[in-house]
Design goal:
The protein is mainly β and about 200 residues long. The chain is about 10% helix and about 25% strand. It has two helices and twelve strands. A hairpin with a 4-residue loop joins β2 and β3. α1 runs parallel beside α2.
Length: about 200
């Protein structure tokens, strides 16, 4: 399965022009899960909260609110500074890595285990890979037994030219990992991580 992910409504790097003059058809699929105050976060992290400061329905001239949340919520790109003290911060990210064709690969894994090379149901053939594990099906419930990605698989993906690795789970590492070896493998292989 190939899809394109496009973040800018104005400029299309696919066509090399601004969107109104772009005639190339794009198959855009939004993979972001819906967020709410019920969306589960890592234990101890800050859940999504909305504070309504002014409300039209209360007689104010507008509705105004404040959001508070962990940035590790829903679909998100991990800044390397999240797991590497010398890593780039998110505003330094080259978002062109997130734009263009990608390959969705279904996996088979037991809950709480790492996905290895043999667990992929198709051969990686893109520089952008999204792994469909199905191991975190309810974003409003923290089970903590989602699948991680083995460092060996990440090393192989890097050798094949993968530069963006996405997962449908809260992390590329297992939930209880403290040494974050899969994050470290992504850092070694210059692979950006898309989680959620």
């Amino acid at each position: 399965n190939s899809s394109s992910v496009l973040f800018s409504p104005l400029y299309s790097p696919i066509c090399g022009r601004f969107a109104p003059s772009c005639r190339r058809s794009l198959n855009l699929i939004d993979i972001s899960p819906l967020l709410s105050s019920n969306t589960a976060v890592f234990p101890g992290d800050t859940p999504l909260q909305r504070e309504v400061l002014m409300d039209l329905h209360e007689g104010n001239h507008l509705t105004l609110s404040t959001l508070r949340s962990t940035v590790h919520l829903g679909s998100h790109l991990d800044a390397p500074s999240h797991y590497d003290p010398d890593g780039m911060t998110i505003e330094q990210a080259d978002l062109s890595l997130c734009i263009g064709e990608c390959q969705v690969i279904e996996t088979s894994c037991e809950p709480g285990t790492e996905i290895g090379v043999d667990d992929l149901q198709s051969k990686p053939e893109s520089s952008r890979i999204l792994l469909k594990t199905g191991s975190h099906p309810d974003p409003d419930h923290w089970a903590g037994d989602f699948c991680g990605v083995s460092p060996a698989l990440i090393d192989e993906l890097s050798a094949k030219g993968v530069r963006l690795l996405g997962v449908d789970t809260p992390s590329v590492d297992l939930a209880d990992s403290k040494d974050l070896q899969s994050h470290a493998a992504c850092r070694r292989g210059s692979i950006w991580i898309l989680e959620g």
